[in-house]
Amino acid sequence: MTYKFKCKDVGMNCKFEFKGANSEDEALTLAKTHAEKAHGVKELSPDLADKVKKAIKKE
Ligand SMILES: [Zn+2]
């Protein structure tokens, strides 16, 4: 089982996506790193973290 994420599923106008993360934790870390680099988000608010978690899909 791997995990995938599309930034646009969080409501961003952004084409970033990845798949093949080995765990939900890894996917969350990748999403956080992207949010920081691309969107200037230093720390995810609980609300945003929740949206990110919902946007992470198993495949
Ligand atoms: Zn993005």
Describe this structure in words.
This protein has helices spanning 24-39, 46-55, and strands at 3-6, 17-21, 57-58. By secondary structure, the chain is an alpha+beta fold. It has one domain (3-58). The N and C termini lie close together (6 Å). The model has no long low-confidence stretch (mean pLDDT 96). It binds zinc ion. Zinc ion (ZN) binds next to α1.
In short:
With 59 residues, the protein is of the alpha+beta class. It has one domain (3-58).
**Whole-number mean pLDDT:** 96
Number of strands: 3
Count the domains. 1
What is the helix fraction of residues, given as a range?
A: 40-55%
- Structural classification: alpha+beta
Main sheet, how many strands, which sense, barrel? 3 strands, antiparallel
What binds here, in terms of ligands, is: zinc ion
End-to-end separation: 6 Å
Going across the major beta sheet, what is the strand order? 2-1-3
Approximate shape: globular
Topology pattern, helix = H, strand = E: EEHHE
Low-pLDDT residue spans: none
Q: What's the tally of helices? A: 2
* Rg result: 10 Å
Question: Topology, please?
Answer:
Elements: E1 3-6, E2 17-21, H1 24-39, H2 46-55, E3 57-58
Antiparallel strand pairs: 1-2, 1-3
The chain binds zinc ion.
Zinc ion (ZN) is lined by residues 7, 12, 14, 16, 34, 38-39.
